[in-house]
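Input (Esterase):
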Amino acid sequence: MAFETKAIIATFGGKLLKLSHQSTSTGTPMAVNLYLPPAALPGAKVPVLIYLSGLTCTPENCSEKGFFQAHAARRGLALVYPDTSPRGADLPGEADSWDFGAGAGFYVDATRAPWSAHYRMETYISSELPAALFSAFADTLDGERVSITGHSMGGHGALTLYLKNPGKYRSVSAFAPIANPSRCPWGEKAFSGYLGAEDREEWKKHDATELVKGWKGGDLKALVDVGTGDNFYMQGQLLPENFEKAVKEAGVEGLVLRYQPDYDHSYYFMSSFAGDHVDHAAKYLFA
Ligand SMILES: N[C@@H](CCC(=O)N[C@@H](CS)C(=O)NCC(=O)O)C(=O)O
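Output:
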């Protein structure tokens, strides 16, 4: 499906394109921002880093204050900033809470009505959106070289999509990810609503800490940062220790998990380490 270009903004020598398209996965229009670095000249394909945002976000939050564009321009890679849920599906209760429904799609395909009709963010992010972008920007984006990153709910999305699809992404990274959603209040609420409260075995298929136990993709190529001053970390919403323990027990190599002293959950944290995460992706995208 074709993209409508809502705006083109010059930034760090490249262009940020604010796009919209009709999604067959969600049955709604979807907004997405695409950053093309200065290296994206006609005929010169650049690799792609997908950034999945956290709860309440739209494509704008990270575009405006994540500082990823500065580093993507330096390294010559494109950035894709998708939305965090369908918008305008008009389901009952969709906008009632900030951690479920609109702005909180959790990057899963809902199996429970009414959400299952529209909340199909896993299919949208892992299949439909990249296919649409690589078709519309065939001369510019290299669909063979893709990495994924994300923040909080988007960190959960990045880790789980990476673990579910060995080989689809060259590397993964995450900022303050919800690393064991089956065992934290945010995840329990979202999975109960989208997947059903009774079948917790089903939840494990969408939980990075559970998925990594069955990982057969070799070296993990994963960078994770968590701030020690992050309220949501302190409240037990993120549980990176559980993920690290599962990685170790599974005998999986290649996780770099860093605790950054005093950093909180905000974009002050992401913007501080955006360069490290772009460099991490670039290491594998240009290998
Ligand atoms: N309810 C608060 C907390 C939610 C929150 O911290 N969301 C994170 C992602 S989990 C975020 O990126 N918020 C938007 C921002 O900081 O720009 C809010 O609406 O901001």
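The two ends are 32 Å apart (CA to CA).
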